[in-house]
Hints:
Blueprint: H1 11-41, E1 47-49, H2 51-59, E2 63-68, H3 70-75, H4 77-89, E3 93-96, H5 99-109, E4 112-116
Parallel strand pairs: 2-3
Antiparallel strand pairs: 1-4, 2-4
Helix pairs in contact: 1-5, 2-4
Amino acid sequence: xxxxxxxxxxxxxxxxxxxxxxxxxxxxxxxxxxxxxxxxxxxxxxxxxxxxxxxxxxxxxxxxxxxxxxxxxxxxxxxxxxxxxxxxxxxxxxxxxxxxxxxxxxxxxxxxxxxxxxxxxxxxxxxxxxxxxxxxxx
Length: 138
């Protein structure tokens, strides 16, 4: 990423530099969100990863931020659609990560995770595997 542009830069060079900078910022933002969730929120009981645990959090209306990967949206469309609807209905933000952050979300959490407004009492720490996932939030 170029830190500066020449004063003779064309409109196209300016647009390309702006796109590159925006893409870099988006990637850093996504990675920071995911890192914070996995490193700080999850151990405090204020984060959930994987489909079953995220669904429990959505049912409890505890979700503040829902994180999804593009791969999860593509391969688990019905589950993703229900999760997004449930998150928006409770006033949560929804972020679709990209780049390395999305790949890390896929590896660490099966493509879906949530930052919680409050810890869910008695909730076991989730298994992040992708087996035995229900197709809906019900």
